[in-house]
Design goal:
Length: 328
Amino acid sequence: MLTLLMGHSQQVILATGGYDHTIKFWQAHSGFCKRTVQHPDSQVNALDITPDGTLVAAAGFQHIRMYEVESTSPTPVVNYEGVQKNVTAVGFHHEGHWMYTGGEDCTARIWDLRAASLHCQSIFQTSAPVTCAFLHPNETELIVGDQSGILHLWDLRSDHNEQLIPEADVSIQHIAVEPSGKLLAAINKRGQCFIWSIGASGNDVKTSTSGIASQLTPVKDLTAHSKYGLKCKFSPDGAYLATTSADHTTRLWSVANNFELAVELTTAAQRWVWDVVFSADSRYVITASSDGTSRLWSVEEKEMKKEYTGHQKAVTALAFKDGVPTPE
């Protein structure tokens, strides 16, 4: 059934975190929990896996911790506690040279991972708490969303920034850029999802060295959900935009069909859907819910295939990576 999750030549990593102050590592195809790591003194706000698949970074209250994926040790290899308030976003440069974070201290930060200890290389200041951040595929611009409804387009080379306000005073909850770099999406707390195209036809946006702010053209103002919006993610093949909400659903919108609703994923037990990730081949999605359960869904069959149960409270963050070469 789940051939993408069962290949022996590649490593599959699935980690979940939540309000029970734990991070769990799962065998994705079976639903078996391989390991539970305590995440003391804080819920898990966000998770991401390093590009080489060796570490998972956890963003929490006043700290960033990094744990080894293949280890029995409960102790983080990095435990940085020099930030104020909640860290709400975390992600990596594609070669793992640096990490970015965003937080309720009204900053986005770039961290040099090549130093002996975690070192903050640059800080971008906002006037409102940062709710989300996403690195454009060109890796020269970080897009930052905040509680006042502003999208900040931060050029990491020049330190210049521009602002975009899709709906004033309505918190931006999440940001996504389509893998080729040609579409930008942002969902706010009202469940509205705003979509822009980036760049003129024929331009290679992914490798472009010019700023994206001047290249944005509104494409769609999508009423994705009638309740609180939580996440938006593009599928790796660019065919779908996934959105999640407090309305207990994950919805997949067809990019080719002007963002018409293609699939709705929900069950009677599911509550707020806090996070969503796609498999590398875009055939499956995994969701995280307030009912303490994560779920694997088939996009084509529009049905649930597996449940990952064990968290005692809401699951608020997912990290999933398939297609990671297995170490020799």
